[in-house]
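Long-time lurker, finally posting.

We've been working with Ribonuclease T2-like (Aulographum hederae CBS 113979) and I want a structural starting point before designing mutants. I don't trust myself to interpret raw outputs, so I'm hoping someone here can both generate the structure tokens and explain anything notable. Sequence follows.
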Amino acid sequence: MVSSLPNLRSLTKFAFGGAQVLLGSGSLVMGGSSLSCPADSQLSCHNTTMQANLCCFNAPGGQLLQTQFWDTAPATGPSDSWTIHGLWPDRCDGTYDASCDASRAYTNITQILQAFGADDVLSYMQTYWKDYQGNDETFWEHEWGKHGTCVSTLEPECYTSYQPTEEVVDFFTKTVNLFKALPSYQWLAAAGITPSTTATYTSAQIQTALGANRNGYEVTLGCKSGALNEIWYHYNVKGSVQTGSFVATDPDGTKSTCPATGVKYLPKTGGGSGTTMTTSTKTTTSAPGGTGAPFSGKGYLNAVSGTGCLISAGTWYSSGTCATFTAASSGSGFTLSSSKGKCGIVSGAFTCASSVSTATVFTSSGGNLASSGATTFYANAVPAGSTQQTVYTASHAQSVQFSWQSI
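Top reply, 14 upvotes:
Generated this for you. Predicted structure of Ribonuclease T2-like:
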């Protein structure tokens, strides 16, 4: 572990040819509006020129890891879902800083979230961000103090009209939204990889199943006594953690601890219905078209990029609560509806409203939503802040795919 750095406010970052150097520069002038980062912000870990504004460029922790647990004994969280471990900034080379600002190592995460009206985030955390010993609040405090305080774009100086502790809300909201867009259990199940007391899998099978939903990028797999218990999803970020675009990438170091073969994926003890397989290995396959798993019942439609989800009108949003959609079998596919009404492609745009008289029949491919067989949708830009983006089927500046998370 790398020792904590001096206060990030006094540092700029220079990287060239993969080598990264931190240079003392005195106080940075943020201008009080750094959360409104320019659209052409440099992608973290990829700059070749000096980046002076660390409110729009994550440094030195330029690679962000959304990490997940699979606890089986004792079991934590639902039996058909992984749980949140955290959101960690890495230095683009596999090393990291920790506990960077003791003055902001807050010990009242629940009260902070409630004070800012983030009750939906807190409720979600109480189900999906669990400590195996039952000390959820202490766990959250640890994750914020150790990792959240090391995210440069979450510095108080990066906010306009800063309200003390508001960066805490952004940290937990972003972590939750990323997790919602990474339904590990469903992605593995779609490839025939399910919890079992007898079956084993290869690391390559697990990587293929998860990579199929992330443009082939690998993850870090963690095993304990040969049993899969952690997944780390790696991202670089264009802009700030709060409002920027998370771009999937490969791990920034060799960290996986699972064996090449014989990987166990155990059911959660007492956690409900884990499926027991009778074969020793499973062959990975893509999710079938039509309804299939997982597009049935109720669920969220999360952006595969990790930035936001669809809300009830069918627009793409990054700062609000994901809408609950209902998927119902229809012919060779399924229809969708939200609290606003039926969902359909209206004048080329994904729309959910009472005015939609006939719901569009969608299909799925590779675990992602498909319209007329195509899983790629489009928007004018990645949503940021309070801006919603209309989702189109025809080409626009930004492409996006949406995966299903059952609830």
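Before you design anything, note these points.
Residues 297-406 form one domain.
The first helix runs from residue 109 to 115.
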